[in-house]
Write a structure and sequence with these properties.
238 residues, 56% helix, 60s Ribosomal Protein L30, Chain: A, 4 strands, 4-stranded mixed beta sheet, globular
Length: 238
């Protein structure tokens, strides 16, 4: 027979289990993300865009935790920690140029002609980030629009002309949807771009893909215009 005391104990046990199942705020992860941002202080000056992305993700994690969305806050905190580490790595690579932009005293200035195309009659060579244009996607979509196909045709021509470059396609999403879903969607977008480049004659052995999901927005606002700019595939080279 169930006594009031037994019932009370059973209810307390169930409540405790519910709390465990729901989990609390990711305090430790938020602390680790904060430490990673502090450790990436150099990135504030030498990799400002990457540092801003990490900081925005950390702030998002804190907001989600305050709203009781602990699972999403944990994912955002992990992303902030990763972005801070990436920002610091990039800052270290740029350290000399960033902290000493004038270069070594007495050094001979670089010859602008050294950056010219080798083809007769060609002008100054475009930097890869200028030449390789971003393509954009519809909401929750990984299909190429006619405009995206035109952009990729131009990108393919540049890629086929610079055979010494490895191409990295980065898939990105807007902030709607879970972290896991957006990482998968970003990968699908990068893969469909890679596949189309192959159809245009690009050697796919030189093309890699990576997905950042919602972690590196081009626009931090939460409106339709920002979402449109964030649903994209960008190009990097090495």
């Amino acid at each position: 027979m169930f006594t009031p005391r037994l019932i009370s104990r059973a209810l307390l046990a169930l409540a405790a289990l519910a709390l465990v199942a729901c989990g609390g705020p990711p305090t430790e992860l938020l602390k680790e993300a904060s430490t990673a941002l502090n450790d990436a202080a150099l990135a504030r000056k030498c990799a400002p865009e990457e540092f801003a992305a990490a900081q925005a993700m950390y702030e998002k994690a804190n907001t989600l935790a305050a709203e009781g969305k602990h699972g999403e806050a944990e994912s955002a905190a992990r992303a902030a920690k990763k972005l801070a580490a990436k920002a610091q790595q990039k800052a270290l690579l740029r350290k000399d140029e960033c902290l000493n932009p004038e270069g070594v005293k007495g050094a001979t200035p670089a010859d602008p002609n050294a950056f010219a195309e080798t083809d007769p009659g060609a002008g100054v060579a475009l930097d890869a980030q200028e030449a390789l244009k971003t393509v954009y996607f519809g909401f929750n979509a990984a299909e190429l629009s006619n405009e995206a196909r035109d952009t990729l045709a131009n990108n393919a021509a540049w890629i086929n002309k610079h055979l010494d470059k490895t191409i990295i396609i980065e898939g990105h999403c807007d902030e709607r949807g879970s972290t896991e879903y957006n990482l998968a969607l970003g990968e699908r977008r990068a893969l469909v771009v890679r596949k189309y480049l192959g159809q245009l004659g690009v050697d796919l052995g030189r093309v890699e893909v990576v997905s950042y999901g919602e972690e590196q927005p081009a626009d931090y606002a939460s409106n339709d215009a920002a979402y449109t700019r964030n649903r994209r595939a960008e190009f990097r080279t090495r």
